[in-house]
Amino acid sequence: MTESRQVIVVGGGAAGFFAAIACAEKNSSARVTLLEATAHPLAKVRVSGGGRCNVTHACFKPRELVKRYPRGARELLGPFHRWQPNDTVAWFAGRGVELKTESDGRMFPVTDNSQTIVDCLMHAAGQAGVKLVTSLGVRSVVGRPPPRPGSAAPAPLFALTLTDGSALNCERLLLATGGNRSSAGLTMAQALGHAIEPPVPSLFTFHVDDPASTESRACRSTTLSPRWPGRSSAKAARCSSRTGA
């Protein structure tokens, strides 16, 4: 008989929703709760890709895909053999959302509207029985010793203190709060004994006061060579600027 477990997913973004849906669909008896600290789940999904939501990228060979992740290529090769963009395309197709590929490889819903993706994730979560709680985050988490072999029922392994002061226990905890430096998820993971690799930006915006810069505001996938005072041009970083539609 499948055990009934309390699963808590912290973070109501795309990763949190996808994880909560996967947990609930894999084990229908699990009680899956998705906690979002703000009142607006999937907020970044709504604005990604200039409001169209670039869902994934048309690169379907794991060994090619890992080349896009210079800090984690070796670690991601195994996971990408288990799940890669082709699986993402199939996952959405199975839920009635068709994706299209643009000339640069980015994949969007054919509707060109991020709300299509938001609606799909919200509907899938509801169908799977995920309980969504908004405007409630996690203040701290404490790990507990695992139950002894032969225990009659799974003991709570995590004790959470929520931002409203209430407490919540669970057998499984998944942190999907994002990787920025201010993320509470990093602090919680560290408190549970995980080593944290210092995060670095991968997608970010530029604030440029020069009026001439507005001439390129409609560009995307543009290679830039920024320079900082006191640094030689040889050390200038190169990056891609994607400014939306």
Overview of this structure, please?
The protein is α/β, with parallel strands linked by helices and 245 residues long. It has seven helices and twelve strands. The strands form four sheets. A four-stranded parallel sheet has the order 6-2-1-10, sandwiched between helices. Helix 1 (14-26) links the parallel strand 1 (6-10) and strand 2. Helix 1 packs parallel to helix 6 and helix 2 (43-51) packs antiparallel against helix 6. The chain is globular and about 65 Å long. Residues 233-245 have low confidence and may be disordered.
Shape: globular
Would you identify the regions where 5 or more consecutive residues have pLDDT less than 50?
233-245
Straight-line distance between termini: 50 Å
Q: Mean pLDDT score, rounded?
A: 85
Overall SS class: alpha/beta
Gyration radius over CA: 21 Å
User: Total number of helical segments?
Assistant: 7
| Assembly state (oligomeric) | single chain
Helix content: 25-40%
Give the biggest sheet: 4 strands, parallel
Spatial order of strands in the largest sheet: 6-2-1-10
Order of helices and strands: EHEHEHHHEEHEEEEEHEE
Number of beta strands: 12
Strand content: 15-25%
